[in-house]
Amino acid sequence: MSRKRPDRHRLLKAIRQAPAYRRADQDTEFLDREExxxxxxxxxxxxxxxxxxxxxxxxxIVVFGSARLVEPSAAKARLEKSKAAIRARPGDxxxxxxxxxxxxxxxxxxxxxxxxxxxxxxSSTCQADGHCEYVVVTGGGPGIMEAANxxxxxxxxxSIGLNITLPHEQEPNPYITPSLCFxxxxxxxxxxxxxxRARALVAFPGGFGTLDELFETLTLLQSGKVTGVxxxxxxxxxxxxxINWPFLVEQGLISPEDIRLFQYAxxxxxxxDLILRNHPADQVHPS
Length: 287
Prior knowledge:
Blueprint: H1 8-17, H2 28-31, H3 37-54, E1 60-64, H4 72-88, H5 93-108, H6 110-126, E2 135-138, H7 144-154, E3 159-164, E4 181-184, H8 187-196, E5 198-203, H9 208-222, E6 230-234, H10 236-242, H11 245-250, E7 262-265, H12 268-278, H13 281-284
Parallel strand pairs: 1-2, 1-5, 2-3, 3-4, 5-6, 6-7
């Protein structure tokens, strides 16, 4: 009794469908293995770098700030909603807290407009005649980040968004230049790209993320790992409440000279003037 020979076509199909047969660069399951982390890190360094080279991005201005700050009209709408809620439930502690926060958020909403105006100024000044200097770069999300990308879009200029994959869904804001909207897996590589081309960093009021990115930059400047980056803190009253800089000096935890690593601004025009003092526009693209 003779055995039936295996079908050659079926065997070849099984081989081609086997995970081992996939080319390594096309095998997403393989690339996602823990052992491949060094390769993924290199890819996250190279992809945004090469694309920015292709787009002619020579220098950037980083804009940080809260994702929770919305434009004034939206902040007013939230306040009215909170007032209606407390009228319906006047004794509810959660409603009282929501109303208090809504009032604070309305006061802070002016920074949305200032971030948008700052980006307009920087983008219209340094992206003229095909130049791609001082391109605004943000974390790509809502709030202050949206405002900064939006300001660049207002004047038809390029802007960059460096999004990060998070446990909760995050979408890029719609004002980022599509060819310059990147998604990162690793915070470390994202932070590196924030500063690779940075000539200035403007920090608007924000929470943990803004503080993390600000202090990382200050640490790199303090230690000399990064040079030539102008740091502007937008809103002195806010920052002086959040961080007691003189106390750190008094305790000997930072040097008095470290206070000179940053400056304050209250308006978009003032922030842009501070940056131009250190990085004149005529030196960015001489006429």
